[in-house]
């Protein structure tokens, strides 16, 4: 599997027009970068309460299906990533009051990288409301990743595009130092 390419200039790149440049990556990689999908899906994404999670996951799943009807794999994969992120973020808030897992700031030399980086893990909590929100998103995420249209479009995308490197002229400058989502 090709890694998600963070070097592309996503601020000026429309991946609906250039699906050949999209790399699936792992998990939620690129979920807050890939346009125009970020702009279409992010306004729908909510998980604070089970009611919000239900409404949000249903709206995102509806977009997932619409992208599939248009043979738009990148859109389907981005919707799948937002469903997954709904689950993981709600779970993070269920386990850690305030949503912060580690104590203190990320060291400057580790920004943009995942992990504790020597920081202590904050105490676990149990928030049943956020846990229910996570379960709602998880059910839709599981449904999306098993969808036959999604699986076929993913197979075709990998076969067509994930064997070559993206066009170097579309790469951005040095990587950012912030988070990668």
Description:
- The protein has about 180 residues and is mainly alpha-helical.
- It is built from five helices and no strands.
- Helix 2 runs antiparallel to helix 3.
- The C terminus is likely disordered.
Could you give the distance between the termini? 19 Å
The total number of structural domains is 1
Q: Structural class given helices, strands, pairing? A: mainly alpha
Helix-strand pattern: HHHHH
Question: Count the helices. How many?
Answer: 5
Indicate the low-confidence ranges by residue numbers. Answer: 173-180
Biggest beta sheet summary: none
**Helix percent band:** 40-55%
Tell me the strand percentage band: under 5%
Rg result: 17 Å
Average pLDDT reading? 87
In quaternary terms, these chains amount to: single chain
Which terms summarize this structure?
181 residues; mainly alpha; single chain
Which secondary structure elements does this structure contain, and how are they paired or packed?
Blueprint: H1 37-41, H2 50-69, H3 73-95, H4 128-145, H5 148-161
Short structural description:
This protein is mainly α and 181 residues long.
């Amino acid at each position: 599997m090709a890694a998600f390419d963070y070097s592309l200039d996503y601020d000026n790149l429309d991946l609906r027009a250039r699906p050949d440049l999209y790399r699936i990556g792992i998990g939620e990689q690129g979920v807050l970068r890939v346009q125009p999908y970020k702009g279409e899906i992010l306004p729908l994404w909510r998980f604070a309460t089970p009611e919000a999670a239900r409404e949000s996951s249903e709206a995102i799943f509806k977009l997932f299906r619409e992208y599939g009807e248009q043979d738009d794999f990148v859109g389907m994969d981005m919707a799948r990533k937002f469903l997954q992120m709904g689950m993981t973020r709600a779970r993070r808030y269920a386990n850690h009051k305030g949503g912060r897992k580690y104590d203190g700031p990320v060291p400057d030399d580790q920004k943009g990288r995942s992990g504790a980086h020597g920081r202590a893990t904050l105490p676990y909590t149990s928030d049943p409301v956020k846990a229910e929100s996570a379960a709602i998103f998880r059910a839709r995420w599981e449904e999306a990743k098993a969808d036959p249209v999604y699986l076929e479009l993913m197979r075709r995308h990998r076969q067509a595009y994930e064997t070559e490197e993206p066009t170097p002229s579309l790469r951005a400058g040095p990587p950012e130092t912030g988070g990668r989502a």
